Amino acid sequence: MERTALLERVKTGVVEVVNSPGPLAARPRQIVSFDRLDDRLNDPSYEGDPLKAYYDIAGGIGKGVMIARAVNAFIAQGLRLLVVVPRTELGNQQNDKFEIHFNNEADIALIHSRQLKGKAPTDEDIDSADAAIITNSSLIKRIRSGRLRPLDWDGVFWDEAHLDIGPGTETRRLIQEEFAHAFQMALTASGEYDSIRNVANVFGPPVDSINTVEGVEGNLLASIKTSVVRSGVRIGFGNILVKGDYDPVQMQKSVNVSARNMISAQLYASFADRGTGYRMLGERGIIYCAGVDHARQTAALFNREIDPVLAAYTKTGLALSDRDYQLLRQPDIEVTRMEYDRVQLQLLRSLWKNRERGRYKSPALPAALIHGSTSTMHQELIHDCFDYGLIKAVANADMWTFGIDKPFATFGINSTPTASLPRCIQRGTRPDRLDPQRYDKVSYIFDVLDEDVWEAVQEAAASPKRVMRNAPILFAQVLNWRPSVSNDFMPNVADSVDIAADPEESRIVPAHLEIPPDQLVMDHIQLLEVYNTFQRATEKQSIPITDEMRDTLKRESKRTGIGLRRLSRAMSDDPVEQQFIELNLKYIAGYSPGNNNIANQEIYDNGITYLGGQPDEIPEKKLTVTAEVKGRLAGEMARVDIGAINLVRYAIPPEWDVKEYQVRALLSNPNVKEFPERVYWTLIEYLAEQPDKKEEPKIELTEKVRLFVEQELKRTEKTVGDIDRALTKSGYEKERWTKGRNLKVAIQRIFDPTVRSFPQDLYDLVVEHLAEQPDRNSGGRVPMTPGTRDRLRDLKRGAGLTVPQLAEVLGRDYVEVSRVFAASTTSVPRDLYTECIGHLEANQMGRPPKKQPPGPRA
């Protein structure tokens, strides 16, 4: 296409973006950016190439949305477009925006080097596509091999263009030579990455620039605060720069110190902001380290220190050996990256399965490690677990510095200094994305500063003419030396006060530098000295635990009938402080396997004082357990046909705190001599009001019957849990099985060799359900071939529905339905596929099918 004709189509597309809302929600500031591009395209005095545009936009403001809007408008003008991304993760993110939100006839191809055989688009698919998302490395390989012809494409979008645009690079040659005929747009958050990689040298001056401060004040980013943490460690600071930043090898050797690595865990446990109500404990965030070994040791210390406080995960039920369990918690263990990744992957798989089964209320790994050698599957699991809250912090070197969208993250800890302003910006803006579930979110960025660095900047500050060479850059510099920046959702961030667990001990205030940005003078910085609030109290606050303390606490707790958890709640209204208090009380009483040598003196004194002011517990009347007492209860339970779980649930008020195992012990344990009289007669009165059980037909559980059910489970690859969920969803109404997991427990009795008979109706339902399931070879899933996916997309276009709308109509989870249309999905559940196909076929609106591939190009 001639440049003049191409320029006219680009102008028309830009006007369409500005004037039309389009399928993607655009923020006003993004429309302003396109409006400025329209002004440049129509400016006859502009001396640069009008077909090259460059945006310098801070991370999190919406470069991906801007690309999607432009691609949508340009495709409508008949242009074929390439979207070039530096990494696979960015390509998947951009493809998800296209797949989920587009409701047009555009055919988008996703190309990268990690695609499995059979999942990658063919050369014919790419030749017929309206647009393609491709990684930079795949683009170079395909052009060299002749599988992709630059002249076939009318436009190119370069995401994170600064990464490989230096003189002599292959990317720069493609921009200036191979795609010189096309419209090209570069988007980056680091236009002037260093003296060599400057996007303006290739694309000309930026069309528009939006920095972090403008993004926050324009409601494009969350409110943000920054503080400095003084490490108390001397690292032998070296200011030698390599490619615009400190030498990574030298820096990792300097900062990888145990006392320094503890800072992230200490900060996580103690930091709070009184004004905003923010507490870091329980939130999610990112820890930036100097290298993989530094990140691994930081993550291990984080797991060791935070796990007891957060009650995040335990070895029980996670199929971890003792060595593997300690490997994730001990930084000094000799271990290879592959071995660490194997254990971490095993743990994350267990946590993910437990989440799906609902086995634990809040399972979480305090800190996970991610690095460049982490497998794709492992990386995806880390992303998913972090998004669902199964991981609280991710320790990395540079893996999560560029191109990662984590709106649920609320803090970032720069555990290693940087002399690169672009890297500092990228780190700080990762946690600053707007959270769609919490628009008043405030993100917190912490820079760790070491003692010798502190002394160096003090010496520089002593002389007005002296400037520290290659000084580390703080995030306060990104914010124009302001301690905080607020948006309209949280306007009073600057007035809030940062505190630690004990306000009197804390010296936490924001980093505040009212000086020219070309100097680094820290006279006005108030530094935070983090102290441990959960296990290692200071000498002033801690005392050795003696036998007398232990006996006194146990005796007073037993006298008043107040347990340690109830005592911790009485001593504080703050949930975080309650955890800290309860942990110390367990140390003193000897109930915790952790640190049993010291405890917080103030907590012990306050606890004993509180218990001393409480009256003696009035002893509950006990009933002597005899054979007659047991027989009466057992006979009534057999008459009604009810188990201990349901009996306690229906008969006993929750505030009595009676458990089903107590009833079982009464009936079967000969060592039980007494039982609460009030509880016993309440159970008897409830049972007396219930009618006799209904006689129902039974089936004899012979070996042949059990073997048949086992064969059916093996044939269909179903579990008892699958049957439980299917029967519950179908509305199986049996009073004793519809509550909780009792239906599942009942089905499991089929395989119990001690059970001789089983309800006929429930057995018939189980067998009928299994008979309806396909063999495991065909499975209950539908393979998603390119043809199947194309048919679904055509039906979606014909029905005029987006994925969120389809999910709402079907009553399905949005993420579950979006996977049906995602290019990376290999198979989907058959029932979900059938529902989607059935609804889309029944609601066709007569829209045209997918556009046919064009003929051969000249």
What would you note in describing this structure?
- The protein is α/β, with parallel strands linked by helices.
- Strand 5, helix 7 and strand 6 (183-188) form a beta-alpha-beta unit.
- Helix 23 packs parallel to helix 26 (677-688), helix 31 runs parallel beside helix 34 (830-842) and helix 32 (803-810) crosses helix 33.
- The protein is globular and about 105 Å long.
- Residues 496-540 and 733-741 have low confidence and may be disordered.
Quantity of strands, as a count: 27
Shape: globular
Low-confidence residue ranges: 496-540, 733-741
Read across the widest sheet, the strand sequence of neighbours is: 3-4-2-5-6-1-7
Task: Tell me the fraction of residues in β-strands, as a range.
Answer: 5-15%
Please supply descriptive tags for the structure shown above.
858 residues, globular, alpha/beta, 34 helices, 44% helix, 27 strands, 7-stranded parallel sheet, 7-stranded mixed sheet
Entry summary:
This protein is an alpha/beta fold and 858 residues long. The protein has 34 helices and 27 strands. Helix 27 packs parallel to helix 30.
Sequence-ordered SSE layout with sheet pairings:
Elements: H1 3-19, H2 28-41, E1 52-57, H3 63-76, E2 81-85, H4 88-101, E3 108-111, H5 123-128, E4 131-135, H6 136-145, E5 155-159, H7 170-178, E6 183-188, H8 200-203, E7 208-210, H9 212-217, E8 223-230, E9 241-242, E10 245-246, H10 248-255, H11 258-270, E11 272-273, E12 278-279, E13 284-288, H12 292-310, H13 322-327, H14 337-357, E14 365-369, H15 376-387, E15 391-396, E16 409-414, H16 421-429, E17 442-449, H17 451-462, H18 475-478, E18 484-485, E19 498-499, E20 542-544, H19 547-560, H20 564-571, H21 575-589, E21 598-600, H22 601-612, E22 622-624, H23 627-640, H24 644-651, H25 660-668, E23 674-676, H26 677-688, E24 698-700, H27 703-716, H28 720-729, H29 742-748, E25 757-759, H30 760-772, E26 781-783, H31 786-799, H32 803-810, H33 814-821, E27 827-829, H34 830-842
Parallel strand pairs: 1-6, 1-7, 2-4, 2-5, 3-4, 5-6, 8-17, 13-15, 13-16, 14-15, 16-17
Antiparallel strand pairs: 8-18, 9-10, 11-12, 11-19, 20-21, 22-23, 24-25, 26-27
Helix pairs in contact: 1-2, 1-3, 11-12, 14-15, 19-22, 20-21, 20-22, 23-26, 24-25, 24-26, 27-30, 28-29, 31-34, 32-33
